[in-house]
Amino acid sequence: MAKRNFILNQIKSTFSKFGFSQIETPTIENLSVLMGKYGDEGDQLLFKILNSGNFSEKLSSQDLDNGYKSLTPKISEKGLRYDLTVPFARFVVMNRNDLAMPFKRFQIQPVWRADKPQRGRYREFYQCDADVVGTNSLLCEAEIVLMLNEIFGNLKIENFSIKVNNRKILTAIAQKIGADGNEAKFCVAIDKLDKIGKTKVEDELLANGFEPQMIVDLQPIFEITGNFNEKLAKLEDWLSDIEMGRNGVAELKELGQLVKSFGLETPNLELDITLARGLSYYTGAIFEVKALGVNMGSISGGGRYDNLTGSFGMPGLSGVGISLGVDRIYDVMEELGLFPNNLGLSTQVMITNLGNETFQIALPLLTLLRANCISAEIYPDTSKLKKQFEYTNKRNIPFLIIIGTDELESGLLTIKNMNTGEQFKFDANELVAFVKSQVF
Amino acid sequence: MAKRNFILNQIKSTFSKFGFSQIETPTIENLSVLMGKYGDEGDQLLFKILNSGNFSEKLSSQDLDNGYKSLTPKISEKGLRYDLTVPFARFVVMNRNDLAMPFKRFQIQPVWRADKPQRGRYREFYQCDADVVGTNSLLCEAEIVLMLNEIFGNLKIENFSIKVNNRKILTAIAQKIGADGNEAKFCVAIDKLDKIGKTKVEDELLANGFEPQMIVDLQPIFEITGNFNEKLAKLEDWLSDIEMGRNGVAELKELGQLVKSFGLETPNLELDITLARGLSYYTGAIFEVKALGVNMGSISGGGRYDNLTGSFGMPGLSGVGISLGVDRIYDVMEELGLFPNNLGLSTQVMITNLGNETFQIALPLLTLLRANCISAEIYPDTSKLKKQFEYTNKRNIPFLIIIGTDELESGLLTIKNMNTGEQFKFDANELVAFVKSQVF
Question: In this structure, are strands B319-325 and A21-22 parallel, antiparallel, or unpaired?
Answer without folding.
Answer: unpaired
